Amino acid sequence: MTLLSKILIGFVAFIHLYIVWLEMFAWTTRAKKVFRSVPPDMFEKTKQMAGNQGLYNGFLAAGLIWSLLIYDPYWSFYVALFFLSCVFIAGVYGAITVQRTIFYVQSVPAILAIISIHFMK
Q1: Which of 41, 89, 94, 116 has the most CB atoms in a 10 Å sphere around its CB?
Q2: Which residue ranges in the chain fall short of pLDDT 50?
Q3: Angle between helices 73-97 and 3-25 (to 10 degrees)
Q4: Which residue segment(s) compose the domain that 33 sits in?
Q5: For position 121, what pLDDT does the model report?
Q6: How many Å apart are CA 112 and CA 82, to the nearest integer?
Q7: CA gyration radius, the chain
Q8: pLDDT, position 51
């Protein structure tokens, strides 16, 4: 895996760690400025749900970080591909069902990383 691929994977993992923080720890404060499509009165009511979503984003970040720590190039490639594909699909679904910008924040970086691990060996 090239340095560029590792940087892109790390960037996607960082995005998801930020989402974890927003959804699990800052849902009723900072998240209000990020998730503008959510009515302000809904943040307190959806705090537990957002925390659950944050946990799932944490699993995605953990899988991506794990892929960077694997020494075997084939195993690292397939673990990264799996978790990047999950991020891409989740971003597409979020863009369709919640807010279009989710596609640009999650799916675009994931697909760029997928392209880099496939074609920049």
Answers
A1: 116
A2: none
A3: 50
A4: 3-119
A5: 62
A6: 14
A7: 15
A8: 96
